[in-house]
Structures
1.
Amino acid sequence: MYKIAVLPGDGIGPEIIPQAIKVLKAITKKYGVRFEFQEGLVGGAAIDAYGTALPEETLKLCQESQAILLGAVGGPKWDSLPPPQRPETAALLALRKGLGLYANIRPAYLFPALADSSPLKKEVVEGTDLLILRELTGGLYFGEKKRERTATGEVAWDTLIYTSEEIERILRLGFELARERRRKLTSVDKANVLITSRLWRETAEKLAQEYPDVELEHMYVDNCAMQLIRRPRQFDVLVMENTFGDILSDLASVLSGSIGMLPSASIGGKTALYEPVHGSAPDIAGQKKANPLATILSAALMLRISFKMEQAARDIENAVNRVLEQGYRTLDILSEGTTLVNTEEMGDLVRQAVEEG
């Protein structure tokens, strides 16, 4: 039996998480495995109930589970809180740090049926299949932050710090992932300006000697942003520090047709966390408009990475592909000639496709 901590969170979280669970339940019937789902509060919902975004009992639940399925956190209701108390910081960053989740894996894959949903030309995005690996526990987000008033006005700073151990850890994972795919690793940095990036690049070159079967290339982050839009098929695995990864992984959403299609996995500790890349989308919460496919695909990543159920993961991905080929779409990926379905209907369609596949 596999124990899964379920954290719906805020906004559309409580709508999309049940869709992934119904698909996972279809997997239990097909493969004879058992999942135990136990729900906890996190984010704004936890602040409202307990006064903190990550209650001790939720953290304990996560630590005692084999995997975590998270919806989304945050929203305008809590935006007025001091940054350290807001859901995005007090829940997500604290979870990553508390569970030792140092690496975020974000695949960007274009399902053929969605080639017309991307704002980019079809001939540019067709065949896109890349993976962005983002360092999660270092850099600007965790360095010293300070703001103070001076005689000439206010000054504020965020400190960008990385140790060689942190850099080597994420780069080594990048080499290993590239070795499992098409054996090309793009290390993204800003070594012409940042001293941390120079340490990053030197560490990558040193590690490359251990992986002679993997092609290593270096690319400045600004050029990488352009190349992702210009020629995305050139990439296999991209590895980068925290801030660069946060920005470029969202940019990659246009390659898949919608940010509602991007899953993610945060790994490194005993328990891994799986969540869609998109946010809580409070503007459409409660309207059944949300796309649950990123959450469902995150569940597929859970099967692949945490539970080593490769075929089951492929079953879910193939089911999503069949549903899209049949022309079913949520609002964010709707195009002429396709059929609009709501959040629950999309979940039911994928579940049915898994059962029939």
Note: Residues 186 and 238 are 5 Å apart (CA to CA).
2.
Amino acid sequence: MKCSLFLVLFAGTVLLSEQSHGQSLAYRALLKAFYDADFPLVYPSDQEMLNQAVLLDTREMEEYRISHLPSAKWVGYDTFDLSVVDSISKDTPVVVYCSIGARSQEIGKRLMEAGFGKVYNLYGGIFHWVNEGYPVYNDQGATRKVHAYSRSWGVWVKNAEKVY
């Protein structure tokens, strides 16, 4: 009886905890493994901050063409060069993002090393963004498509049409 009660309480705790930030416990653990504890984050719900920042998409061009955040500028990852941000004041808030936030954090570190003072990583990347119901766009306008990077990473996209 005690074992059954414990299992019910444990399962309930896990199910409730999975709703934090609309994400599963597994996704949160994944992000925690990739993120540096001291790198600043911004959440999709912080729309005021996001509206004041320059959004930089650090994914590859193929991913960006499928969809990106509103007004995001593509800067890439493999081909990233600081010259693509020359026109951005180093005092301007900058939010970097990618699929989940790993590549963008690396680009964010490079921006900080170059003197940008207000650099934030979008928590959960574009995957979390669409899972929370926020819009993405391509050259034709709003879209439901998101480049899921690969089939194994695509399991984290829950609220969009996956493209590989």
Note: The first strand starts at residue 41 and ends at 42.
